[in-house]
Structure formats: structure tokens, C-alpha cells
Amino acid sequence: MTSFLDFWGCGKGPCRQLAPATRILCGTIVFVCCFVTPVQNPLGIIFFACVVAGWTLLCGIPRKTFAGLCMYACVLFLPLFLLVPWIETDASANNRWANALAVPLKIGIRGTACIFICVSTVAILDLSEFHRGLAALPLPRMLVALILQIIHQTAMLTNESRRIACVIQVRGTASGCIPKFRFFSALPAIWLLRIMNRAERVAAAMDLRGFEVTTRTVREFGTFLDGLAVTVIFLLLGTAITIRWINGL
Amino acid sequence: MKAALTLRNVSARYRPEDPAVLNGISLNIALGERVAILGLNGSGKTSLLYASVGLMPFDGYISVCDIPLSERTERSVRNHVGFLFSVPDDQILFPSVIDDVVFTMERRGIPHSEACIKARSVLERLGIARLASHSPHRLSHGQLQRVALAGALVAEPPLLLLDEPSTALDPVGKEELAGLLVSLNAAMLIATHDIDFVRRVCQRFIVLDDGMIAKDTSDSEHITSYWCHKAVRTCR
Q1: Phi, psi (rounded to 5 degrees) for B206
Q2: Are A149 and B90 within 8 A, CB to CB?
Q3: Residue A86 bridge partners (DSSP)
Q4: What value does the mean pLDDT of chain A take?
Q5: CATH code for the structural domain at B1-80+157-236
Q6: pTM of this structure
Q7: What is the ipTM of this complex?
Q8: B75 contacts A204? CB cut-off 8 A
Q9: Which of A132, A201, A202, A209 has the highest number of chain B CBs within 10 A, making it the mutation to test binding with B?
Q10: Dihedral of the CA atoms B99, A196, A203, A153 (nearest 10)?
Q11: Cβ <8 Å between A149 and B112
């Protein structure tokens, strides 16, 4: 099973040569591009596909992760197509089914693209680089500290969940349907309690260590490569906006 | 004489309706003095450490380096204290070992480059210099304990409050930590069950029983026999 932590820094693509802040900036702009680009016309679709595929390739996520993401996207978005018969469209239109299909298709395409872009961006940053990159961006320091803690604590909770899973594997579950049901229904409460206790302890530690002072700002001087990457990525954003504007949306 | 930690008639409870976990504790720790707090589970060792830095409500008087502990002085008091929690995961707040240790220095206004040099030297002393760029999520419990200790020691605070510092360490690690603690000038209060460890480190031993001081001595032989006797009596 691939855990939350395994995604961080697993990419080996050329984007890793960029400064961490540039990687975060590029990933964010590619993400925005995918929301701006219309997917109703061939030009938009081609541009959209190229941007997503290009970014995923440049980040170089491992094949196993790529396959896992494809499966995850299918599980997440294919059930939406079951709703097609109930989607209300203009009854007088000739291509009613096509119009109904377009709705889950659009959600699926954009959703899948978002998953790939997010994971690809995460794949070219390990947690330390992510911290450095965020600190170098012109963001409010409180926001940086908050994002950092969300990611850090999520990783800790993933580890905690893994430990619980190991305990279940080693100790085994109860035999029989009703004891099994009792066992599994008690799990969320145990997990939640552990998390709440942990949150209290972490809050105490933050308080004690003076975390409200927040993180420092890092000044990183970009290389020529960083400048080039940022220029290209802003050109892509400009193209996406132009395509949307031409499309009249 | 300036005291590192003073408690006068301190009582504490987690919630007003709960029974007191500390009952009228009074003690004085001089600068540079190394004191062990021994006691069975639930005797109030951790609560004593928590109350000393204002992490739990208390009645009575507490001061650190002669600064009386109150809501207003909490931050300044905590700047004088290095604290090690019993679960090291909880106090590591950054995605790499070096960032976490450096943070302790930076929040005291020390420039980043200087903080990095100091942090690396502390990691070296604790035998974990090679882990500097590692993510804490991939470390063992013992390694996490050393990282957390590095974060507590790096700013050279005059008072160290250590909750079970030796629990997750291997024998070599314990030996090294004992040597390191003895070499420091800081006063320390070590809550533990590990009598062998504190006999190597501490000059004074306090036994807590039901939130009260049952014994306060500097005789290490006496404390060993007292502790063994107490443990046997409790088992019966």
C-alpha cells in the first residue's frame, strides 16, 4: 500500500532541478491552467491534455504510482456515469444523451487532471524542500506555518494509522460476525480518541516551543532554469486564458 | 542564591472536579543541580513537569530562574527551559531533523547560519549528525528521542525538564546521554523509573507518591534500597 509519505519526493523527473519555490509555483499554475482551459472544443482538449501529460512526465512519477493514480481516478469518477440517466438536460435537444454524458465527463477529466497535477507536484518535493519552498514564496508567514503543520501532522497521523493497522494484523480481529462488527465499529472511536489526545499533546508542545512565532522567510535566488520555467509556465497560463476567451466563456 | 526552579505549596488538577494530582509540593532546585523525580505510574511526575512550565493549571507559587510563573510571564519562563516530552513524536514540529533543532534557536532570535552550526554540533554530540537531513517520520523511537533532546538542549537553557529521557535508548545511548547530561551546566529535573540512569546523572533524588513528596535525599545508595523496597511492597 502506498502511504501519504511515499508520494513525497518519489519523482525523478527534470523538474527536480528547479528550486523548491519554483516547483511549487509551477505546480500551482499548471493546476490553475487546468481549471481555466475549456474542455468543450478540440483546441482546449488538446492543450489541456498536453499540459497535464507534460507536467506529469517532467515530474517523473514512478510507473507504479502512475498506475495507482489511474485506478484511483477510475474508482472516484466512474460511478458518476451511473447518474447519467437522471441528469436533467434540455428535453427538446437532439443529443440529449450526449449532453447528459458531458457533465460527468467534464468532472471526471478535470478531477483526474487535478489528482495527477497534485501528486506530480508533491512527487518532486520532499517534506523539507516543501518547507523551504513555501518559506521562499511571498506568502503570509502564518499561512506557511499552517500549511506546513497540516502536512506534517497528516504524515504523523498516517504513521499512527499504520501502527493501528499493524496492531490489528498482529493481534488479529475477533472471530464471528457480531464480535467482528463490534470490533470494527469500535475502531473509529479508538482512532479518534488517539488523534484527539495526540492533538492536545502537540498543542502543548507547540505552546511550549513558541510555535506562534512562525517560520522564517527564506531568500532563494533563482537560477536561469528557474526563470525559464516560470516564464514558460506563465505563457501556458496566458494561452489557457486566451483559449477560454476565444471560446467566449 | 538564584534558584533554577522553585515550587511553593503547589497543587494541581487537570479539571476542577478531578482529584489533585499534585498535593502541596514544595521544592527548590539550585542552578546547575541535577534532580531526579522517581515514582510509580500515576504518582504525578509528568504533572509536576507540566505544572512547572504552566502547561496545566496549578495553585501555589512556581518560579523559574526567579521569574514567577503567571500567564503574563509564561513565554519568558519557557525561554529559560528545555523540555523533553515522554512521547518525542509530539514535540517535533518540522519536516527535517535539522529544521526542528534550528527552530529552537531561531525563535530566540539567533541568525539561521549560526543556529545551523550550533544545531549540527548538538546533533553530533548526541550521535545523530548523519540524520540531520532526514525526515522525522522515518526515524525509530530512540532516534526521535535524541532529536527531541537535541531540540531541548541546543539553546543551552539554564533549566532542563526531561520526562523519561532514557526509555527508548539502547544501553550505549543511555551511557552517552548520561555523560552528556553530566557535562552540562544546566539544572535539570528528570522524571523517570530508571534508577540506574539517574544514579549516574543526578545528585539529588525525590520520590513522589500520590502527588506528594515521599522522600528527598542525595544519598544514591539509600534511594536505591528505598526504591527497591517500595517497588516490592507495591507488588505485594
Answers
A1: -120, 130
A2: no
A3: none
A4: 83
A5: 3.40.50.300
A6: 0.75
A7: 0.71
A8: no
A9: A209
A10: 20
A11: no
Could you tell me the residue ranges of all domains in chain B? 1-80+157-236, 88-156
Measured in Å, how far apart are chain A's first and last C-alpha atoms?
A: 42
The answer to whether residue A249 scores a pLDDT higher than 70 is no
Element (H, E) at A37: none
Contact call for residues A187 and A181 (beta carbons, < 8 A): no
CB spacing of B107 vs A210 below 8 angstroms: yes
Determine the Cα angle at B209 with ends B56 and B85, to 5°.
40
B93 near A CB under 8 A? yes
Q: What is the arithmetic mean of pLDDT over A93-109?
A: 81
Render pLDDT for B91-128 as a digit per residue (tens, 0 to 9). 888 888 998 898 888 888 888 889 899 999 999 988 89
Helix (H) or strand (E) holding A148: helix A141-171
The secondary structure of B142-174 as a DSSP string is HHHHHHHHHHHHTT--SEEEEESTTTT--HHHH
Give contacts of A204 with chain B, Cβ < 8 Å: 50, 55, 85, 90
Q: Taking the CB of residue B222, how many other CB atoms lie within 10 A of it?
A: 12
Looking at residue A127, its pLDDT comes to 85
Pull the grid cell for residue A195: 488523534
pLDDT band of A174, cuts 50, 70, 90: low
Residue B140 at interface with chain A, using a CB cutoff of 8 Å: no
| 8 Å CB contact between B22 and B176 | no
